């Protein structure tokens, strides 16, 4: 379960973004009041504002931390058409005594002619690289060639996305098998332009970013997009906040010949799609192991999503801003504590089994990873949807027989 | 005032027309039917009709182009609808009478200013009074019945950028200057201004009196600000300040909307913004049609808040309708959400979203602090009260499943090297077990079983083993494992074989059903749990724990299986393995060979003994599985512990990827020691070299205090060993800690001990050592 700790943010207008640093001990918020605040967690768990300063002459849409290897560095982007890079200065003892730290602007990136809607540092292994996207549909990628000099940024790439961009996300994978990749979401209102999510990949040969994939099924405005932390996976998982929450899986397909210079082809699967916010979804965020996805929507709630071992995603909790339980969803709410109450258990197990059946067959496919693994691990519920006693799956002897049915060769064959 | 009824309904659509030349200023006649556009090379009157602008009159007549036509500003008289005034760039102030019968409508020409006239302004109620402000620093008041100016006002400062008659006070006008000042003048007293204050840093380009709150003056400057001043008090008081993104060229209060004003910019920014001064950070509405700088904005009618006209350097004249405006706040994200490293969740959202029970209702109650009293009917699109966000952090409780404690503890306690393989596995299984991760624990145990040498079953009898109780489970797993492995190996006669196997297995199972009730129940209990345990995956699960402690019931199964094997080899005990009890001896039956031999009885396909490499594909898939599930810790730990046994099975890139991911995670959690150990133990060249980059130590000799060359620990100047402990005078091997001030140091524990009793250097050099 979660405990809500309310923080008096004292921003004078809407807060548009919250961002944790690499180690999870600092937090930055940005607001329409043109300021950014930095919060530090004290030993007793309280958050203290240690810096608050005016960053832009317009609403600050996003704030993001650089990897601490590059110092305590923040980037912000704003309605005023600029993005800025900030660095914390240590040593001003006067400020330190008052518990304040000093941030100075290292650079202003002024290339955009419209509102800069998102800014993100690239994964560390790429160096000190920053991507911005703007409302006129241009993604710009900057690099600081000298990581010690944060005031020099050169514009490396300009990608024209045609559609007004609202959010970007770097693929965090550090594998050499995965070239740098960036996903761009558009909040263009016109539903006739489909494909509001575009994925660009860096091509070593041409030294340019080229479009690798467009998610044509996303037709509504996209407000946020987030690659899941890639902890050694061969594929990529992308969460999208649009009128619902969607989770896509991008599986790089092996190239026919290694010399082909085109972008990687992907097999795109929709892993999940939830409309339980019943409204626009504004934000999605992954936890560090990419096992939990949080989403927030116009309903003012945060919902947590988790997959089971069969990639079947379900809501595991709903959080209101004030921590109060959400009416009518107490069952799901308590499920947050994994197996909190027996009631929640049984309720969930029914749902889980029913949907597990739906997803079951593909995983029986013998050549695929995971199918046999599921057997290696504590046993999954090997429930066939065709079984007539499917609904009374509880502790019944018929399952003894079912335990071995997966090995029946005919079943996987027809669902291959 | 008879025409004050809303006129916008007639021509309420966004429209534009191309002008021949860039416009500098525009002005509308009072009934909002015609608009005059003035510029360097244009001076025309357009009628606003339903289907577009229609050119009515071109006032640039005459053969030779006169600079008098080159307008910086234009104003249409609000009472006398035939009367226009222009400010020319050559310093002339010209009035035009549209009622003149000939083509040339020019009426008066005042050439009193020396430089460009920036602004002309008719008195709102006095028909014949015209005011001008010029670059030369003077303002002049003209009576249109006379041939020259009535009075001249000297600002005593730089150029005049704007002059505006007050709506409230018959005699008062405001003037704004390039040096940032605003002056108030009484038209009867040309000798001295009534009041002056500095409104902006840098030029004040424009000012506008509020049409209703008549003491309010809005000013806009190059400092990108719009300020609203309350002029009714003794000192002008700044009551609102709007920060825009570019220098403000024009500011116009919106009719009928007390808090709204429109601005356009002098450079860079081509948009027109309408601001609510109470929410000064984000524009209420934006008109984005112009392609170049907007030079003139004017509300079409003094009682119509929905139609705005604008002229631009891009040679277009636009009529903007409010319903077509873009609303930046609608696209603005009202929420922020971020997952922290430790599973806590920071969430900021608009307060109305958080508090409203049905948050989906837009603006549940508005903001009562600022009643918008002049709305006839509540119009959602016009509500723009000040809002704030609430920020909260959801911290996962200590036992919460999303908390990352398990990761840290596991990372700290796992043993990755330094002991025999089986012991490592057992230790790690135990760690996982204690952290309530039975799945992981089981995996470790199985790995030990699989990869311990079958010929020399190095099953060091472990006291934990019998308690683990999941051994029977594994045994049945192995059965299934085998079956699926077989499945792959016998593609050609898959059907038959597998069918055989299947029946065999089923037979086996049926035979042992009696004895294995407990096990079956256990399995399904677990399966059940797993079903709703979907969301806790590898995590603590009290109920599951309970299920897991069913070992005694499950044991009979082992005997059942043990009955089947054809020839279980009596295992040779390792001398050092302290096998004590019979139940532990039984665990031999759980070596893979048993279950394999069980199959081979029915299949006769395999040798009774399988090499560990037989399991490699399975283990590889298992590692892949763990990595996919986000538990790269497990993948890497197994990879390291298994070492050469598995390494060749997994391609280098994947290994490297796992290592990188795990190291990154460890560093996030500031587990530097573990991270270093992993780096050291890794076999990927790309990983091990991580440890060998970019660390330089500069060392002073503790004896002669000079920098040492980087070869060894012998100082080449005084030929003394520099790494002698100052406390015990022995050479330090291992951790050497030294004071950076005096270069003396020694064993970590010795120095720590020393510092408890004294702050001075143990070497006796008198230095007050600091160890950080």
TrEMBL record, chain A:
GO annotation terms (biological process): cell division; cellular response to amino acid starvation; chromosome segregation; positive regulation of TORC1 signaling; protein transport
A matching Pfam family: WD40
Gene3D superfamilies referenced in this protein's UniProt entry, alphabetically: YVTN repeat-like/Quinoprotein amine dehydrogenase
Residues spanning the signal sequence: none
Keyword set includes Repeat: yes
Cellular compartments per GO CC: kinetochore; lysosomal membrane; nuclear pore outer ring; Seh1-associated complex
SUPFAM superfamilies for the chain: WD40 repeat-like
Keywords tagged on the record: Cell cycle, Cell division, Centromere, Chromosome partition, Kinetochore, Lysosome, Mitosis, mRNA transport, Nuclear pore complex, Nucleus, Protein transport, Repeat, Translocation, Transport, WD repeat
WD repeats: 8-40, 274-306
InterPro entries registered for this protein in UniProt: Sec13/Seh1_fam, WD40/YVTN_repeat-like_dom_sf, WD40_PAC1, WD40_repeat_dom_sf, WD40_rpt
Domain of life: Eukaryota
Major subcellular site: nucleus
Disordered as annotated region, ranges: 384-416
Role this protein plays: Component of the Nup107-160 subcomplex of the nuclear pore complex (NPC). The Nup107-160 subcomplex is required for the assembly of a functional NPC. The Nup107-160 subcomplex is also required for normal kinetochore microtubule attachment, mitotic progression and chromosome segregation. This subunit plays a role in recruitment of the Nup107-160 subcomplex to the kinetochore.
PANTHER family from the UniProt entry: NUCLEAR PORE COMPLEX PROTEIN SEC13 / SEH1 FAMILY MEMBER, NUCLEOPORIN SEH1
Similarity-based family: Belongs to the WD repeat SEC13 family.
Stated name of the protein: SEH1 like nucleoporin
Protein species of origin: Pygocentrus nattereri
UniProtKB/TrEMBL annotation, chain B:
SUPFAM superfamilies, alphabetized: WD40 repeat-like (SSF50978)
Presence of keyword Zinc: yes
Keywords: Autophagy, Lysosome, Membrane, Metal-binding, Repeat, Transferase, Ubl conjugation pathway, WD repeat, Zinc, Zinc-finger
GO biological-process terms attached to the record: autophagy; cellular response to amino acid starvation; positive regulation of macroautophagy; positive regulation of TORC1 signaling
Any one GO MF annotation of this record: zinc ion binding
WD repeat feature ranges: 110-152, 197-239
Spans annotated as Disordered: 562-585
Primary role: Catalytic component of the GATOR2 complex, a multiprotein complex that acts as an activator of the amino acid-sensing branch of the mTORC1 signaling pathway. The GATOR2 complex indirectly activates mTORC1 through the inhibition of the GATOR1 subcomplex. GATOR2 probably acts as an E3 ubiquitin-protein ligase toward GATOR1. In the presence of abundant amino acids, the GATOR2 complex mediates ubiquitination of the NPRL2 core component of the GATOR1 complex, leading to GATOR1 inactivation. In the absence of amino acids, GATOR2 is inhibited, activating the GATOR1 complex.
Protein family membership: Belongs to the WD repeat WDR24 family.
UniProt-recorded name of the protein: GATOR2 complex protein WDR24
Classification of source organism: Eukaryota, Metazoa, Chordata, Craniata, Vertebrata
